[in-house]
Amino acid sequence: MSVIPAATVILVRESERGLEVFLVKRHKKSSFMSNAFVFPGGKIDPTDADAETAAARELFEEAGVLLADPAPDVARLAADRARLLDGQVAFNDLLAAANLGVDRSRLHWWSRWVTPMQEPRRFDAEFFVAELPPGQTPSFDQKETVEELWITPAAALERQAAGELRLAPPQLRTFHELSALDGGIAGVIAASAQRQGHRAAICPRIVEDEGGIAIVLPWDPSFGDDALPSGHVLATPPSKFVWNGSAWRAM
């Protein structure tokens, strides 16, 4: 079974409530993660130079935020996004016409997730953190996504636990990581710099758990072979997510 390369952006901003993360809700008819709140992202296209380009393109398509150098003309973004979504122009051509390039300095590597082998559709996704550029306002695309939300990591975890916010394990795990950090966006970027040198792929396993199913991460005691060592920079709690029939519960 082939694994599809993908890229995802954890878009963040500072607010009166602290660090907030942008989520979009997948359409109920989406082929992957339907009805779930996710970070903007998708598969890497053949025309994408690399994962960073794919991340920037997906963020523009799904959230309308363009990470470009020099700073883009904000007044043009909505029209350019509409042309891109309608297939009237390719992302690279759109950038070239405006003498823009992807601003890779705004993309900070965070993690790499590979879908468990048992799943019928598998992705190998690079996750990047990016701060919302000045003057830009994200919005869902009304095609693949039908709702949007800015939320703090703590509130996301609370709403997930209460069954009010459907999150997949990668998103849930990321919110646990972000909630443990101090210093707002500066703290997140500092953590990203620490993780840069440890780009181990997180390849969860699906296991039976008390009559149900669970997903275990490579540093969980039950993971078995190929586990990451306990001292690895990624090896922090939680390490297991149990399906309770309607949502994933972190352990």
Low-confidence stretches: none
Radius of gyration: 18 Å
CATH class bucket: Alpha Beta
Helix and strand content put the structural class at: alpha+beta
Helices and strands, in order, run as EEEEHEHHEEEEHHHEEEE
Helix content: 10-25%
Textual characterization of the structure:
The chain has six helices and 13 strands. With 251 residues, it is of the alpha+beta class. The longest helix is centred in the N-terminal third of the chain and has 13 residues, at 51-63. α4 packs across α5 (169-179). The mean pLDDT is 91. The chain has a single domain, classed as Nucleoside Triphosphate Pyrophosphohydrolase (Alpha-Beta Complex), CATH 3.90.79. Helices cover 25% and strands 29% of the residues. It has helices at residues 51-63, 77-85, 91-97, 153-161, 169-179, 184-196, and strands at 3-15, 18-26, 37-38, 41-43, 68-69, 101-102, 108-114, 122-131, 145-151, 205-209, 212-216, 240-243, 248-250. The strands form three sheets. Strands 1, 2, 3, 4, 7, 8 and 9 form a seven-stranded mixed beta sheet that branches. A four-stranded antiparallel beta sheet has the order 10-11-12-13, with helices on one face. It starts with a strand and ends with a strand.
